[in-house]
Amino acid sequence: MTLQVKDIAYVRSGDKGDVCSVGLVARGPREYAWLRASVTPADVKRIYGDWVRGEVECHPMDNIGAVVVVMRHALGGGATRTLRLDQTGKSLGYALMRLPVRGAETPS
Fold this sequence. Notes:
- It contains three helices and four strands, in the order E-E-H-H-E-E-H.
- The protein has helices at about 30-40, 40-50, 90-95; strands spanning about 10-15, 20-25, 55-60, 65-70.
- The mean pLDDT is about 85.
- It is elongated and about 45 Å long.
- A four-stranded antiparallel beta sheet has the order 1-2-4-3.
């Protein structure tokens, strides 16, 4: 059985214009190490494909055990310009919860 980020972290997200910000907060120190190993710009780009047309940045926040993901040109021009349905930061943030967790061993 493979863990997903949803099993080790909480999510908070938002949007401003065409930028989506997602905070992933680990449930504990062990989970934070797994989170840092599992959430990279390449992983984020892979999960969203062409939806994220700009740069992806992943910022570790050691003091609170979180990773902040910033995706530029990710909202189809912004909430008032896009024809996408339900594409706000909250919707995009939850998709990151499907990323597989690296480094965690779970019983089958």
